[in-house]
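Lecture notes, unit on binding sites. The following record was shown on slide 14. It pairs a sequence with 2-phosphoglycolic acid.
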Amino acid sequence: MLVIVKDSYEQMSKEAARFIADHLRKKPNLVLGLATGSTPLGLYRELGRMHREEGLDFSKVTTFNLDEYVGLPPEHDQSYHYFMQENFFKHINLDHRYVHIPMGMTRDFDAFCAWYEQRIQEFGGIDVQVLGIGGNGHIAFNEPGSSLGSRTRIKTLTGTTRMDNARFFRNSEEVPKFAITMGVGTIMDAKELLLLATSSAKANAIKAAVEGPITAMCPASIIQLHRKAYAFLDKDAAAKLTGLYNDTWESRVF
Ligand code: PGA
C-alpha cells in the first residue's frame, strides 16, 4: 500500500484529484467507483474545478457508487443519489446513462444486487475505487464483522454508524436502518483503490487499517492485500501511524 500524507485536507484532496485526472487522461472511458460522505467532498470540488477550468472530460466515464440507504427515494436530500448529484455530477459532464448508484427503493434486493455486480463486470470492472473509512473501520457500509469476501448486498447499519450519520437527519430515528452496499470482495476486485481519510477522528481507524492485523473487525484492513492501494491522508488522520511513507510516493515508478 502506498500511504501519502499531506499537510492539509485541501492538499490531500488536490493530490487525490490529480491521481484521478491522470488516470482519466490515460483512459477516457475510465470506470470510476465513487463514495459519499464528507471526506471526498474536496476531491469532487477539485475535479469539478478541473472540468470547468481545464476541460477535464468525463463524457466517456462510467461510475458505480458504493452504497445507498434503503427506503430513501433518489430525491430525498439525504439519499446518496441526491448527494452525488449536488456535490459532483451536476458540476461535470457525465453521460447519465453510465451512472450507477444502488437503488434503495428496490423491491427485490437479491435481484438488484446481482444485477449491480453483473453490470460492473459488463464494464470490465472498476478501474479506480474511491473509499472513505468509518471511525469503526468500515468501508462503504461493510461494518465490522462483515465477510471480507462479501459481494453487493443489503446490510444492517450498526448503532455507531447510525449515530455518526444522525447529524444529517432531523433526528436519529430518521436514520435508515439498512443500506445496499458493495461487498468487501466487490471493492477488492477494483483495479486500484484510493482510500481517503481526514481529521483525528479517523486516526485510530487508519492505524488499524494500515498497520493493524487484517481482520473483519476492521474491514478497511483488507486493503493491505490489494496490489494497488493508495491511502491519501491528512496529517491528523495519519497521526498514529508509525511507518514513514511519503518518500515512497515521491519516488514512485509506475
Ligand atoms: P465521512 O464518512 O467521509 O463522512 O467521514 C466516511 C465513511 O463513513 O465511510
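Take-home: The chain has eight helices and ten strands.
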